[in-house]
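Students often ask what a 'structure token' actually looks like in practice. Rather than answer in the abstract, let us consider Alpha/beta hydrolase, a protein of 313 residues. Its sequence is given first.
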Amino acid sequence: MIITEPHHTNVRSLQMERIDVTFPSGDAACAAWLYLPDADSTDRPGPVVVMAHGLGGVREERLDAFAERFSAAGYACLVFDYRYFGASGGEPRQLLDVPSQRADWRAAVRYARSLPQIDADRVVVWGTSFSGGHVIVTAAEDRRIAAATAQCPFTDGLASGTAMSPLVSMKIAALAVRDVVGSRLGRPPVMVPTTGEPGTVALMTSPDSVAGVQALIPEGAHIEKDVAARVALQIPLQFPGRQAANVACPLRVVICEQDAVAPAAATRKHVSKAPDVEIVSYDTGHFDIYVGDWFEKNVTEQIDWLRRTVALP
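Now compare that with the structural description of the same chain:
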């Protein structure tokens, strides 16, 4: 298969195969894209980059752009949607639950290791924003992970929570309590937007959040961006960055210095404790590294790090 429509990338024709696959996780199946690099390059199992999106995100929101570049460089990629999101199964829809998502990560790694094209000891985990925290935890818990990349990662629930106005936090907490109570009574989820303008009731309300997320969505596509409000009770209790000290494999962390969603200072404090870490600092906001010139710099340097860290056959 030749991908000739590169989904927002500047690459015009890439020799690769992208296959729709599914794998079981918990009570449902996760949908994924499996990117396989040029089959003529080697017949030996090679490394794979396992990837998933951030807060309420799905594969179509620029993960294809990253995966195409990694695959063009010779790395297989498994890009999956969490249960309850995108093309994956599970009910209720748009349920953002931290333990479920981390279970999906374990299931994705397990599935990747089962593939004949993949070297089971060269699995790389790649996360962005909210999934950047999942990647740190996954790598800390699974000592077979070969390397991990976390870009603009969510590492500290308290730091992210205090970036929001107290009034907005109170309103979201009220929705979250209603959602939890309703779920126990069998009612549909009470929803909250993932993004909104400053001062509105949403999980991300930095000045760049609305435009930043919109820039990730393919033209003409409709992607549901509300999530079950109960996650707001989980986020302040999450400190995935604390697990960085337990990540034995090489860890690469991209910090956006103007990040108003995942504050840079808290991230740097946590990840600097990892024993084998490369910290990269960009003078950008949270969403800039997905598009344009910053994307090109970001993805090019990530590929260079991959080649230095997880060599191709």
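One point worth highlighting: Helices lie at 63-72, 98-114, 130-141, 157-162, 166-184, 209-214, 264-271, 292-309. Ask yourself how you might have guessed this from the sequence alone, and why that guess would often be unreliable.
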